[in-house]
Design brief:
Length: about 650
Amino acid sequence: MAKIKVTFLPHNREAWAEEGVPLIRVAMEAGVHINASCGGEGLCGKCRVLVEKGSVETGKTERLRREDVEAGYVLACQARVKTDVVVRVPVESGADASVLNAEASPRRTARIKEIDLEQLKEQGLFVPPVEKKYLEIPEPTSRDNVCDMSRLVNHLRLGHDEHRLEVDLSVLRKVPDTLREQDFKVTLTLARPVRRECGRTRIINLQPGDTTDRNFALAIDVGTTTVYAQILDVIHGRVLAEYGDFNGQISFGEDVISRIVYAEKAGGLEKLHQAVIQTINKLIERLVRRSGVSPDEISTVALAGNTTMTQLLCKLNPRYIRRSPYVPAATLFPPFRGVDLGLEVAEHVTALVYPCISSYVGGDIVAGVMGSRMYRSEALTLYIDIGTNAEIVIGNKDWMACAACSAGPAFEGGGIEHGIRAMKGAIEDFSIDPNTLEPMNLTIGNVRPRGICGSGLIITVATLFEAGVLDSQGKFDRSLKTPRLRERDGVAEYVMAWAPETGIGRDIVLTEPDVDNLIRAKGAMYSGYVTLLGEVGLAVEDVERIVLAGGFGSYVDLEKAMAIGLLPEMDPDKVTFVGNGSLMGAKMSVLTNRIREDVVEVTKKMTSFELSETRSYMDNYVAALFLPHTNMDLFPKVIERLMQRNGARRAAARAL
């Protein structure tokens, strides 16, 4: 789709957007502040702008006077770009232009990395672990009356260079009738070993006729909170349908520790196993219905999850994961039959479960390392999966070190007074007028705000810090004259949206304890990087590339994440986002057997460190409990921006 050019006056900022994007989102991406606190529902009427050239879809205009509409004014949250357009932001809708250009900078989100199927084919890596072969076999005669199975195997070996074969009993039972259903024209489904020279190819299914163009697979990320699944056309490498749902285990505890504790109770392990299997089966049913694929046409399912989720999936006792010396039941898993796990799939479907590294670095992280291709890179790479339990991998194609740290629930909206998950109504982006301290809130779905999600929290705190509303210790400057800053029960807070503008009927605020929770969470993450690097004799300055995985990596402003000290400071162009790394790795596993071969070597390279038992971790943690850090030399660009903006603020004050 062709991009549309949007020019904002009087700032002369240009931005590019796809047709149908609200003007206010384009402005936020361009670093142009427009006052708006209702989240984009057209309720507050503060985002009034003038369209001077080009056209937009105006949307709701009830909050504008008739003469304004006739003059070309629209609400930026309602107007959607249609053609190249020039928009003027009035003084009352935006910040003072003398300060704005110093205060605001365009959003810099991570470049999104996707699987390049053509590249896999060029490199000879597109060899699915489960393939189909069509055979036309000579019919038996009185002179050639060898048994059906031998006839089939001999013909397969003759034309397809298959020598080490084994046959599932379920296939053997099908052979006599299936061969004769279409005059000895059949399709075999073959499951490859990880290494051809070290294992046998299994014949797992037999179908009449030529069905080689119908080979499908499932890729599943088994997360602690959510489970995501895709159904893929293995022949062409296309995703036909995808869907996610909450993990049914949530009712037994929100984190892995509470679930391990529940699994220790009588019948607990069985209940947790059934809960996640039922969730997966519901997803499979939905995907099959959406894609029009017959369940019998699915050949493979790849699953990746953290160590606890993997053990509960396989119904393995997780008791010893949380007890020193933190030993999981298994880290490597052979191919299973999907039905043996409890999956509602055909009997022949092979289940590939990603291996784990340790009790707290699981198959989801291994899958992310594989999917991101970090393990093939020369560059020293920092791979981060940010969440309640944050996992870190550092290394390149020659070596890797990994660790996990408990960041707490702040990145998912937990522990924050008005924190919510990334859902409709969550404030996901924020800007502030440097003079009036009025907010610009954008919500998921452009509806009234209902709370603040993780990415919105990071951007909000960073923006308030850079605007001087928060200091380096996360405390509000109570001397600032604005009704947005107030004290309630002795606690300072910033009002992001007044009650009449929200979807919950009360003020949505950011409190000092909220900021403190975020600082502790980001401190745990940053100290994890520093400690892990220190254990291998390196420092954050040595990192050449960052790979982000997880729910909000594609939305959070990289500059803001660095401003609070969540990420090491580096060129945003060197940061890549892979989205759901666990799902990406599972997807790669069903598309290419080479990944399964490589993953064995990768797990051998990955050295796991227990941060809680590393002496320097706590020292690094305490040092990181500031915005962005006690050692400001690590964040020279943040210092430069703060100095620039303070200078602009002083210049504006003199002009007044």
